[in-house]
Amino acid sequence: MRKYSITTVVNHLLLLCSYTSAFSANAPTNALVDLYNTPDLSSRVAIVTGGSRGIGKGIALELGRAGMTVYVASRSSRSGSISSERDLGSFEDCTVERTAEEINNMSGKGKGVAIPMDVSNDAEIAKLVQKVQEECGRLDVLICSAFTTPPNLTDASFRDEFWKQDAGSGAMWDACHGVGLRGAYIACCESVPLMIDTAKQHTGTRPLIGIISSFGGKSYTFNVAYGVGKAAADRLASDMSVQLSKYNVDTVALYPGLVKTEGNIEMEKRGEWEEASGGFDLAMGETPQFSGRAMALLTADSEMMKERSGKVVVVAELAKELGFTDVDGRLPPSIRSLKFILPNFVFPQIEKESGSSLPSWITDNVPDYLLPWSTFSGGPPPTIE
User: Fold this and answer.
1) pLDDT for 341-378, tens place per residue?
2) What's the CA gap between 72 and 102, in Å, rounded?
3) I want to staple 381 with a disulfide (CB 3.0 to 4.6 A). Which of 17, 248, 303, 345 is the partner?
4) What is the residue-wise DSSP string for 232-244?
5) How many other C-beta atoms lie within 10 A of the C-beta of residue 309?
6) Taking all residues of the chain, what is their mean pLDDT, rounded to a whole number?
7) Long-range pairs for 131-137 at CB < 8 Å and ≥24 separation?
């Protein structure tokens, strides 16, 4: 791992922050003006796996708010079991029924349909798509957000060396590649024929598959198995687009940033978040609905989606481009922005090493400047000697 002296890092930071205005001239501004207008997606139909909580729920809610009929699919149901890999504490009713009810209680035309199911069961996926075909005759959006919580998420061993994690069990690998990757692939296999038919029957409509991925697909994050799974999810979106382009069906690998999911919020309450995450500041995180806004706007603009099909779309970067904020009025920075990287990685190390706080004229004036993807190919951020 690369190491730098604290003097070198500080000198570079001082120079960097002194040129904030120069950076800002070439980077999107962080203006907190919300230009988001809920698009009209009424008559369209979506399947959202993993829709009982987290990012999946946030997307389901925003697609429902836009008027879509949303089939909310997840294991967690009032009529059966609640997935228990994570302690959700005060978030007691993280079920498909709750998500569907929230959609149905909105003032618009959206409709939520609760589907208790296991995405690891191929037959249940096929049954869901058949139900959508029989009831609606079309499928415009498939969101693959279901993901099995990896083992040891609440402590530092989640970030351990791979041979210590999986020798003799393969539990981390299976968790990161089962539901989140294989399940997504099978959901796409079952859904695509109906989506192709939808594109044929409804002129101007380009159905969209959204694979929920993360920055782990581009940069070392947490552990080996996690990163391989996310890189594979990105490749799934990319390679599917090659075959689907002639059928007017689009794909995207969606990169949320640090997200304030129910599980993450509870980890922070219990004092587990800092060790498990490696010190990320959850206060800088996004709400799950931020991803939902991104997917609603992509669905509404077929030309924009056609241009981005098969590519990675970073939620925070799309928000700056299109001028919308998170639902709480904030504009969270992209994880590859200096505005995220310096406060989460560099500043804490400098302050720990020096024993004193950095001046506010540095910490309050970090430019929202995006580092190129190539910066992240060499491993985690540098440490300080």
Assistant:
1) 999 888 888 888 888 999 999 988 999 999 998 888 76
2) 11
3) 345
4) HHHHHHHHHHHHH
5) 23
6) 86
7) 131/71, 132/45, 132/47, 132/71, 132/194, 133/194, 136/45, 136/69
